[in-house]
Each structure stands twice: as C-alpha cells, then as structure tokens.
Amino acid sequence: MMHQHDAAPPARTWLLRFTRAERAIHHVTGSLMLICIATAACLYLPALSTLVGHRETLKTVHVWCGFALPVPIILGLISRAFRADLRRLNRFAPHDWEWLRRRDRRAVRGGRGVLPVGKFNAGQKLNAAFVAGAILLMLGTGEIMTFPDPWSDRWRTGSTFVHDWLFLVIVAVTAGHLWEALRDRGALQGMLTGRVDPDWAARHHAGWADASQRSHDTVPTSPDGDNSQVNDVDAEMDKSSAEDDSEFAKRRPGTS
C-alpha cells in the first residue's frame, strides 16, 4: 500500500519554444560567428596577432567560417518551425512599435507583461534583421577581399573599409546579445533545452504564452529535470502557430 508521503510529486508543465532543429541552427551559426570574431581580432589587432601567431592558419579558419555562416540558415529552411519563426521575426505588429516607444516595456503586472509581446519582442526582431544583413554584407565584402583580382582598386578599398568597421559593430551587438541572454535565465533555458516556464513566458512574451497554451504546445516534465518527453513532441512545433493571426497584424498603431 502506498503511503501519502511516497506519492510522486506532480509533473511540471513547460511551454515548447524551440525545436531541436532551431536550436541547432542557432548554436552552429553562433559558434561560427564567434570563431569569425575571434580570428578577426587576432588578424587585425597587432598585440593579439603577435601573441597568437599562426597568421595564415587563422586567416584560413576565418575565411572558411565566414563563407560557412549562411549554410546553417539555408539548411534550416527545411524546418517548418524555423520558417514560421522567420516570418515572425520579419513582421512588426502594433505592439512591437509600442514596445520600442515605451520605457516600461518590460514591466510586469499581475504576473504578466504589460504588452502582449509575441514569441519575439521588437528588440529581438531588430537584432535578427541586423544579423541577417551583417552576414550578407560581410560575406560580400569578404569575397572581394579574398578574391580581389576581378575587382577594381575602389571596390577593394571600399570592401576593406566596410568589412573592418562592420566588424566593430558586430562585436558590440554580439556582446549585447550575450549579455542579455546570460542575464535572462528563462531565455537561456529556452534556447538550450527548447522549453520555458509558463510564468516566464507570461512575464516576457504574454501574447505568445496565451497562443501556445491555446494550441496545447505544452509538455509535462518530471521534477528530476528529465526532458525526454520534450524531445518526443518537438515535431509538434512544426505546425502553424495560433499566434500568427494576431502577431502578424499589418496595421500600424493609430490606424483604423
């Protein structure tokens, strides 16, 4: 006979946020970006260049990782969940414009964010747009610098100028992205495990949390942290989200 104190504690429910494919795309792209930044720093900063040495090896690694940057994203288009998230990132809803204007954009009332933020807030959407544009621009200028023969002096000089200065901007944006990720345990857990606490989602992405719960994108997880059940239902996130109709609104604030 099972005593009351022997009963297993109830399983905790989590929201599914990212599939394994999406997490792999993020991790591989991020790793390639960090390698490019590290090798570029060693190539362009005299102190690091002297300390590390192996300049030709570093140059080869930098070039190959740079040309490989778009590959995970292109391969990721096979995933319906990834394509759906790209659509989310590519569209601004009315609350996104309000999120950018308001200083209390992250305020929480009654356990919920004051704005019905979708799966990605406006800052994350702008960061994604910058990263996509930066990859394309660095790829184009890098190609001219790596294979300079067909190009005129003006093109080569301009490409070097853009490549070098954009590198500094990328370093600043990447540092900010890592800072925000490391100080937000919920967001970090979502990218590492694919699941987030519903309370965290309600505080930071209230609109997405409501849509996810309506579409049953939840999974019970045992108290010991086993996420095997999460992996079994990752494919469910490939379905179109119920959030799309609301977050993809095309009407700007103040229009009827």
TrEMBL record:
One of its GO terms (molecular function) is formate dehydrogenase (quinone) activity. Keywords: Cell membrane, Membrane, Transmembrane, Transmembrane helix. Its main location: membrane. The keyword Transmembrane applies. SUPFAM superfamilies: Transmembrane di-heme cytochromes (SSF81342). The chain crosses the membrane at residues 24-49, 61-82, 126-145, 165-182. GO terms for biological process: anaerobic respiration; formate oxidation; respiratory electron transport chain. Residues 207-256 are annotated as: Disordered. The keyword Cell membrane applies. It is a multi-pass membrane protein. Residues 17-194 form the Cytochrome b561 bacterial/Ni-hydrogenase domain. GO terms for cellular component: formate dehydrogenase complex; plasma membrane. Residues 236-250 have a biased composition (Basic and acidic residues). Residues 218-231 have a biased composition (Polar residues). It holds the Pfam family Ni_hydr_CYTB. InterPro entries: Cyt_b561_bac/Ni-Hgenase (IPR011577), Di-haem_cyt_TM (IPR016174), FDH_cytochrome_b556_subunit (IPR051817). It is found in: Cell membrane. It comes from the Bacteria. This is Formate dehydrogenase. It comes from Actinomadura syzygii.
